[in-house]
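Example: Cys-tRNA(Pro)/Cys-tRNA(Cys) deacylase YbaK.
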Amino acid sequence: MAIERVREFLKKHGATIEPIVYEEKMHTSEEAARVLGVEIGQIAKSILFRTNDDAYGLFVASGDIRIDSKKVKALIGGKKQKMASAEEVEEVTGFKPGAVCPFALQKEIPIYIDELLHRFDVVYTAAGIPESLLPISPQKLVKITQGSTVKLAKEE
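Written out as structure tokens, the predicted fold is:
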């Protein structure tokens, strides 16, 4: 089960945090923020992008922003970038869309973490199943994913 893979990864990396399982499924940042009673920006949404030449990047963004496609292009390259299909998400990450944990991935891919997550002491990532979230500090998230902190928000 996907949540067990997340737990094993955390244990292997000496993390003392544990995914929390809720009764409700949370497929969107809005749903998760409502269930938790937190700001939508504290929900760390994980979105897989791919290029036309099958390069992938996982973008972990604050739930209250739109990811700038120009920034995606600058980070993963290729002539065209688009969000990965549901099948690609599951194949590359090992998680279903809406439950993508930003670590314990099936395949090794670059991970880019939104700098705006650092506004908060604690953010919440998906933990492998739609009913589960993982409370984690942005600093710990960067460390455990070995991700790069970048500016992802689209300038309005």
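Helices lie at 2-12, 29-36, 69-76, 86-93, 138-145.
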